Structure formats: C-alpha cells, structure tokens
Amino acid sequence: MKSLPIGIQSFSKLIKENKIYVDKTKYVYELVKNGNVFFLSRPRRFGKSLLISTFEELFNGNKNLFEGLYIYDKWNWEEKYPVIRLDFAELKYSSGQELNASIEKFLDTAANNAGISLERNADGLIPMKFAELIKKLHKAYGSQVVILIDEYDKPVTDNLSNKEVMAANKRILHDFYQVIKATDEHLKFVFLTGVSKFSGLSVFSALNSINDITVDERYSTICGYTQEELEEHFKDYITALSQKLNLTYKESVAAIKDWYNGYSWDGKISVYNPFSTLMLFDKKRFANYWFRTGTPTFLLDLIRQHNRPQNFLGELTASDSSFESYNPDNLNEIPLLFQTGYLTVKSIKSSIEGVEYTLNFPDREVKDSFLQCLLSNYTAYPQESMPELFKELSVKFQNADSKGLEDNLTALLAHIPYQLITESEKYYHSIFLIWLKTLGFDIQGEISTNRGRIDAVLKQNDYAVITEIKYSTEKALEEMLESALKQIDDKKYYEAYLEKKVILLAIAFNGKDVKCKFKTSDTFFV
C-alpha cells in the first residue's frame, strides 16, 4: 500500500518516495497544447502548488518522473525550457519595501542559479530586472521561457485589513506583472495560481490574453479527487477506515462523501477536498481538518460589516460578472467566499442574458465549521459550548419547554452588540436559524405550502417543530405569540408533518426582549 502524500507539494519528491499520485497530467498536457497564458483559482491546500511543481518538472524534461502517467508517451522529452518558478508564499510582504526587496532577491538568485549576470541593480527597477532575466534566459538556453507563479495574490490577500500595505503591494505587483505582457515573444508558457481574481494587479487588465480556467468545465477536476479517483487510489485506506470505525465499505464511502465531497467549478462534477481526505485516512477519524488550518477571520468580519447573516441559510445566486474580478478596496463577501472555498458551484444556468451560478456550502465540514465560526463571530457565543447546548436544547424542544428556550434565546441575544442588531423580523429569523443550524439541528426556513410560508421547521427523529417568528416594537410580546400560533393553525402549516409528533412554536422579539410559547398537537388542534 503506497503511503499518503500529506503535505507534499513537490512532484519530484512525491514520485521518488512512491507516494500515491492521482494522475492529473492529462489536464497539464491539454493546457500546454491549447494555449500559453493561464490563470487558475482554487482554495488553499487544494493542490495548486503540486500542479505548479508538475509543470516545472515537465518543462525541465525530467522524463523518468512521468513514467506510467498519461503524458509520458505524448510529450517531446528532447525539448527543455528554462523555468522561472515564483511562490509568493515564500516571500516577505508585510510592507511595500519588504515585498520589493524579496522580489529583487528572488530575481538575483534565479539569475545566479542560471549562470546569468543582471546589470540593472538600482532600487525601484524590479520590472526592468525581471524583463532582463527573461530575455537573457531565452538567449542563454535558446528556448523560450516558462513562468510559473504560485499564490500570485498573496501579498494582497494577506493584507486586506491593512489598506496602506495592500495599496503599496498592489502597485509593486501591477508593475511586476506587466512585464509578462511586454516580454510575450520570449515566453513559451505562463501559469498563475491564486485564491482570488483581484483587479488592479495588471494580470487581468494589462495582460488581456490570459485565459482564466477557474470555472472552465474542461478543467473542473484539475485539482481535488473525483469519486472514481478516490475509490481507485485509496481503496485500501477506505477499507482500513471501515475496520477502525466498524462500518461497511459502502457506509464509509457515503460518510467520506458527506464530509469532504462537494466542491465543484462546473456545477456537474464534484471533487473531494484533498487535504481533508488525506488527513482522514491518516487519522482514521472524521473531523474538520481543512477548516482548522485557516479560520476565515477577515471574511467573517466582512460579513459582520455588511450585516447579512441570512445570506448563508441556503443557496445563493451570483452572476458571471461577479467573478470577473474583485476590487480589494470594495469587497463583496459572496464571490470572495466562493474563491476561498467556503462556497462552491452547485449549478450553472446559461442564457442569452448571461450566466447565473447557484452557490452553497461544499460539504459538511465547511458548512458546520463556517456556521459555528459565523455564530461565534456574530454573537461572541463560545464555540466550545455548542455541543453541550445541542443536547440541552434537544430536551427543551422535545418537552416543549417554553421558559427554557426563552432563557437560551435571551442569553444568545445578550451576546450580540446593539450596533449589529437590525430591527426587522427577517434579521431575527436569520439569527434563530443560524443558531440552530450551527448547533446541528435539521432545520429549514421559509417553507412554502399551498396556504402560505412557514418561517421554520425543525425535524428530529420522532417530532417536528413548526415555528412562526414575529417582531414588533409596538405590539406586546404576548400578543405576538398568540398571533403567531393562530397563523399556524389558520393556515394549517402542520398538515405535512402529522406522521410525527407535532410541536408548534411561537417566538416574539422586540430588541433584546424575547418570549417563546410551545403548543403540542394534543393541546392545540383537534
């Protein structure tokens, strides 16, 4: 059984150490054959660096590494090309001066390694030095140059909360990337990866020939594992997991799919998060591996700033233009959450008006973790208290404990700063749903019936809670509770759930004041 390639981003190391490699060289071959300047966005820890490394070894002509892979008998191994590989994650960029110095040091090192002497050493001439390196490499090797840039946007994305540093880094990167267009005749192939497609960096403005393959269905599975790849390459690990957790093979596959499969960039084929999947097979325990490696603090703060928590209660739609480019000075959290991997494409609808994307959480890992972080960030409610609270609330729902739920909701509202509270019924509805979804309850909001729309339905194994939420600054809380219960009864919202024990729940809000009232089927309707 081959060992797992956890944390390995070097194609050469992976092959030489006989690690499991899911062959993606078909896509590598198609890209080189069909164009010369590409951009790919994928979330962090999704295999972008390994893909860059694969390109590097290919253009270096290291034939022995590719034996047995798709590309092996299709590539001209006699041709070799000089490669400039730059990973911005390895540079320093906490200020414009630091970024400038890091890039200059990289260019000098690349030149020295190639036996080339660069003449322009004056500060502030990074673009000229980059252009000189490209031209001299072309001349020295007699072959056009390959440029591979990983994390092209990191000096910007890591400084989004520091406007001054971000602006300085943008200017430096803008001038740096313009060189790629200016030296086109010297270039064989250019491939850039990153998380987000930011405007103002010259890559997508000055470099107008770049082909963005992020949502191109031909390359939708270039990173990550498809279902077939998972079961072909990791069958022994699935078996070992099954034995450890006392599951059947089929049950294990279903659980792995629920936890880690769901990322899609074409709305048709989904792939597994490679990092989480590998960690699962290593630890033999289901957990939130990918999410733990980088909680999206800035994104959560952005959601708080825009104050739209209800956006994350179901599917979202976005137009094609939403993904064209982002202005880092005026960010929209929805497309940014898509690019960073917290949302993914569930379906794509094309028409003469354009393309519409339906977005949602990719899998259980991301959904549960993100909602927990969102609730904690929004209300300061401690995440570590949530598992115990789930058990506590389950008893209160089942026992129709009005005062108990009221106390819990009062405690939740007490954690929310007044400046974040929006005086509307929709806001309180959203907070209630996020709260219960985060805790792990099976709850759905705004369910349409032939008589109206139910605010929320919470379903457990043997009972269903039909919920109506009211908000007013003028009506008394008790008056709103009776109005909510009467609405449920008049519109017979409970009819579709009579196979279970039916519990009715009315909740009334006025600022941070709240009251709840349960009614069970045997005491309410006959």
Please provide a brief summary of the model.
The protein has 526 residues and is an alpha/beta fold. It is built from 20 helices and 15 strands.
What is the CATH C-level name of the largest domain? Answer: Alpha Beta
The CATH architecture of the largest domain would be 3-Layer(aba) Sandwich
> How many structural domains can be distinguished in the coordinates?
4
What is the fold named in CATH at topology level of the largest domain?
Rossmann fold
User: Taking Cα atoms only, what radius of gyration do you get, to the nearest Å?
Assistant: 27 Å
* Tally of DSSP helical segments: 20
- Number-wise, the strands total 15
Instruction: Report the end-to-end length measured between terminal Cα atoms.
Output: 64 Å
Helix vs. strand class: alpha/beta
Uncertain regions spanning at least 5 consecutive residues: none
Average pLDDT rating: 87
* Sheet with most strands: strand arrangement: 2-3-4-1-5
> What is the oligomeric state here?
single chain
User: Helical residue percent?
Assistant: 40-55%
